[in-house]
What does this fold into?
Amino acid sequence: MAPRGGWLSLAPATSKARLRLARQELSRGIILDAAERVFAEHGFGAAKMQDVAALAKVSTSTVYELFEGKDALHEAVHTRHGAELLAVVSNPPMARPGLLDRILGGVAAYAGYLMDHPEYLRMLSHVNVWAEEASLASQGQVDASRRGAALVTRGFEKGIAEGVFAPDDARLMTRLMHATHQVRLLDWLSDGMRVAPAEIIRRMQRELVCMFCPPEHIPRLLAERGLIDRAPEAG
It folds into this structure.
């Protein structure tokens, strides 16, 4: 049996280590939040570690203790959001059963997450994350982009096989969908976020049905889901 004093001497050391780790984790979260705002405002090239430290109210040396440099900090922001976003899209809410509504639910979850995190959306606006991998700024972005694109492409492939979508190249359909999402979300951002997120989601869902479903089914699919725009009332 170890001497009683030995056990007692370990307890404070363990408590101090846990406290130190907890403080580091708290500081890490505060720094990531600050970095997101700085990258959103200035873009990666013009952002400075000193600006992140000032916004986080920590010393620049503290930032460097937790992140090797600006590249590592930038990637950490993307990795955090990428993991959260993929989790949200992988299990979307569904108003109706079926593959189409699972994909529409994914659109709602994806767009809703980005509109709930406008600073991150603004950060994404500095690079074309919806384009080729070569344009992505970090490995975290590349990994998240690959996983998300693969998820959507599999959905399109299955939908084509089941007759939910008109026959086409599923990978091209994924890129086209992402392109329309980029235009819609960045327009919402540049317009001052005036339109309600629920309405932006409804428009994105309507565009997906109109772009990819068989033309003869589109009116029914839109009507069943309340996605038909109302005609303006006569004055």
Q: What stands out?
A: Residues 4 and 181 are 64 Å apart (CA to CA). The mean pLDDT is 85. The domain at 75-224 is CATH 1.10.357.10 (Tetracycline Repressor; domain 2).
